Task: structure prediction
Amino acid sequence: MGLDGLRGLAALYVVLFHCWLYTFPGYPDSSAPPWLEGLMFGRLAVVFFLVLSGFSLAISPARHGWRSGGLAQFLRRRAWRILPPYWAALAMSLMISLFVVPASHFGPPTGKTVLVFGLVAQDMITAPTPNGAFWSIGVEAELYLLFPLLLLVRRRSSAVVLAACVALPVIALGLTAPGTNPVEGDNWLAPHLAPVFVAGVIGAGVVAARERVRRLPWGWFAVLAALPVLALGAVKGSVWTVHHYFWIDLAIAPAMTMLLAAVATGRPAPLLRLLTTRPVRRLGDFSYSLYLIHLPIVMVVIRRVAPHFVSPGLPTFWFTLAVALPVSVLGAWLFAQFFEMPFKRNRSWKTLIAPARCRPPERRVRRPRA
Result:
């Protein structure tokens, strides 16, 4: 449907964002050239991931009366799909942050790091992180626990009621904050980001709707919904936009949802052709692995390799793009072959191990005597 292609392009943008972020200090008012400002919105790519996650997970329930097939089964499948590559990437990130280059937050990892990140509790408990990209995995884990309840509300009432139940408390929190702009920390982000996940869940109803609804110009609706947010960001500036992510996240989520609805229903055709090309589709196949392992690679290149070859600033940025970007993509593809693809193709340990057990033993070929 093109959704995997969108996921791959979003993951690639996050890699570019981190190449930009750790090359030029002072985020968000960094020392980067103004013409590179388009790379500074990595947070919005993660918001897109959350909208896409809610959308993808809800497509099947939307086609079956908003039923998930059971809480235990849903959580087991999510854990099977998400945790093995995450734990492998956690081990890799710990080794790199301990012995090669420190991670991006709170100093070197500790025993608390292993416990908190191993249990995917980083959005609830602060600990030194081995990988700055892992914050969103903790948010997603909490939203997965909430997902069956969201389906229940949607099944028993309507999309409007579901949106109101989740969005209104968050909006009320924002309006009562000092300056009506809450200051976000490094965790407890799931309550704020729940509405963007729910936007994706609601949007999945378009895929299961009547043909008249499916044929609506969702792509143009997405453009119209995004224009006010983009115009506000252009007028206020990129630094203001970053400082007001609390509201920007909520405002851009409907446009993202409509874009997903457009792609899922086969429009617009030019975009769909791009998203279904083999390179983009293959990138989407291992986009989760790319998201998990790219940041330690980028950090090693910027902090340990680049200083030996180029000067700081723009030369380091180009060097990082030339080295870290292809290494991250190739490394993610190899990583996925061992830690992601087997768990996508198989639903249990039994089916995962069965091919190895069923492999016939090698026969020795007896050579004829001279």
Remarks:
- The mean pLDDT is 92.
- DSSP finds 17 helices and no strands in the chain.
- The radius of gyration is 22 Å.
- Residues 71-99 form the longest helix (29 residues).
